[in-house]
Amino acid sequence: MERRNRIKLEMLCVSENEAIARNIAAVFVAPLDPTVEELTEIKTAVSEAVSNAILHAYGAEKDGSIYLEMEADTSGKITIIVEDRGIGIEDVKKAMEPLFTTGDSRERSGMGFTVMESFMDKVQVDSSPGKGTKVTLIKSLDRIHGF
Questions:
Q1: Is the dihedral of CA 94, 95, 98, 101 positive or negative?
Q2: Does the domain made of 4-140 have the CATH classification 3.30.565.10?
Q3: What digits encode the pLDDT tens for the residues 85-108?
Q4: Which residue of the set 69, 85, 108, 117 is catalytic?
Q5: Model-level pTM?
Q6: Structural domain boundaries of the chain?
Q7: Which run of H or of E encompasses 125?
Q8: Which of 13, 39, 46, 54 has the most CB atoms around its CB within 10 Å?
């Protein structure tokens, strides 16, 4: 029987929680013995996804939660979901284009989804205006020692 490990948590939509999510992801995947490069890629993708939620999900009020779910199996497949119940994205395809930003282009590069896609095997974004956004990040580690 294949073993799976899973963690779910809810955190406030505040900038301090980006570092917390990043560190939780690192600790979560550590038993799978990722390379330093794999660990950095996972941490960076999680950081980008959580940062997007913090910056965009709830508008100026920032009154909401971010939900983080991580699952890993003994084959080395890691699935990470970052979800919010905020304002959603009207045009996901447009939002995923490199350099697209809804903020001030002097402050934001518009490269968040591009960074996620470059570091993960698969990035899926599901969003509905007024209902929120769910970003699913999938990565399979090259080698695995299990948990």
A1: positive
A2: yes
A3: 998 887 767 666 655 555 544 445
A4: 108
A5: 0.85
A6: 4-140
A7: strand 122-128
A8: 46
